[in-house]
């Protein structure tokens, strides 16, 4: 009798275990853009950690910055019958067909950190920050720091056609509009990379009287800012003083630059997009709970007044 009860108990426990693992995703495909920035590297590391903590088998595909590779990866995930797909879409357009294929296969798709222009019923939810707000926080910081002084600004944009490049530009322009003392004189893509950021900044400096005509740099991410800081130094100017530097991401290297007085401000973007994404997915798979279409992460402004060396120490081992 006791043995029978024990067996029944074990059976119930086993079936409960099976239920709990079958209601949650076991295999998730993750189509990552590539590794263009320190922030992107941290997002990859954290997504892999979050999946491991939850016992999820994460199938990782690095698209090397190409949309066609992301579309191929999604089709391969669909063919493999994964339980869900995470994607950080490199650009905003051109996703309708593949998202419809995932929907037909009843595979929920979650967008991470960038948006698409497809109908929102083609994905379960999107986790990200308010990208326009990030740009406007950066712009407002500059307006306040200038206190009415005339300033020619150069801008390093992110990847052309990506939602952060579009929205961070708009947000910044909104913040400086109505401030006639702040003029955006040059704007070009640096593709979110350090190398391109340096290269484009060199061309800005050459074109603007060896940089004497530039008062501030706005970069859509910290990696481009770090590349540009190098270019400014090589041109014989002091970044952070002769040319103010404001950017977005809050990666450890920008805090080192801030501690050295070579960068002035950054807007934080958390690389932990996967945590909220897996939570939403778990609730959806458990009982069909629909998450909001947009799960917003926080954006926080850091300046040289925020003990950048201490923030660097906290962040330096977090996978950036
Ligand atoms: O989509 C987020 C942006 O993409 C980050 O700001 C940037 O560093 C990245 O590569």
Describe the structure.
The chain is an alpha/beta fold. The protein is 46% helix and 19% strand. It has helices spanning 2-23, 38-53, 67-80, 96-104, 131-146, 163-176, 194-207, 222-234, 252-259, 274-287, 308-315, and strands at 27-32, 57-62, 84-87, 109-112, 125-128, 151-157, 182-189, 216-219, 244-249, 265-269, 294-296, 299-303. The strands form two sheets. Strands 2-1-3-4-5-11 form a six-stranded parallel beta sheet, with helices on both faces. It has a six-stranded mixed beta sheet with strand order 7-6-8-9-10-12, sandwiched between helices. Strand 6, helix 6 (163-176) and strand 7 (182-189) form a beta-alpha-beta unit. Helix 5 packs parallel to helix 6 and helix 7 (194-207) packs across helix 8 (222-234). The longest helix is centred in the N-terminal third of the chain and has 22 residues, at 2-23. It binds alpha-L-arabinofuranose. Residues 36-37, 39-40, 113-114, 164, 192, 221, 223, 248-249, 269 line the site of alpha-L-arabinofuranose.
């Amino acid at each position: 009798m006791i043995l029978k009860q024990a067996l029944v108990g074990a059976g119930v426990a086993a079936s409960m275990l099976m239920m709990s693992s079958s209601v949650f995703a076991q295999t998730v495909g993750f189509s990552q853009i590539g590794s263009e920035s320190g922030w992107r590297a941290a997002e990859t590391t954290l997504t892999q950690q979050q999946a491991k903590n939850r016992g999820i088998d994460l199938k990782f595909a690095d698209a090397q910055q190409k949309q066609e590779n992301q579309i191929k990866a999604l089709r391969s995930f669909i063919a493999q019958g994964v339980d869900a797909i995470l994607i950080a879409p490199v650009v905003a357009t051109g996703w309708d067909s593949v998202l419809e294929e995932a929907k037909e296969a009843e595979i929920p798709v979650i967008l991470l950190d960038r948006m698409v222009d497809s109908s929102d019923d083609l994905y379960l939810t999107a986790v990200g920050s308010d990208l326009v707000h990030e740009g406007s926080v950066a712009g407002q910081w500059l307006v306040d720091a200038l206190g009415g002084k005339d300033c020619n600004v150069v801008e390093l944009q992110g990847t052309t056609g990506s939602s952060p490049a579009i929205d961070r530009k708009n947000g910044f322009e909104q913040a400086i509009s109505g401030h006639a003392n702040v003029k955006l004189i040059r704007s070009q893509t640096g593709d979110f990379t350090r190398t391109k950021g340096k290269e484009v900044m060199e061309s800005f400096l050459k074109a603007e009287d060896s940089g004497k005509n530039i008062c501030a740099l706005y970069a859509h991410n910290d990696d481009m800012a770090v590349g540009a800081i190098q270019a400014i130094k090589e041109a014989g100017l002091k970044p952070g003083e002769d040319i103010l530097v404001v950017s977005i991401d809050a990666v450890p290297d920008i805090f080192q630059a801030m501690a050295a007085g070579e960068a002035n401000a950054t807007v934080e973007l958390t690389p932990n997009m996967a945590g909220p994404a897996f939570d939403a997915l778990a609730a959806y798979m458990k009982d069909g709970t629909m998450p909001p279409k947009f799960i917003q992460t926080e954006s926080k402004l850091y300046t040289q007044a925020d003990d950048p060396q201490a923030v660097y120490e906290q962040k330096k081992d977090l996978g950036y």
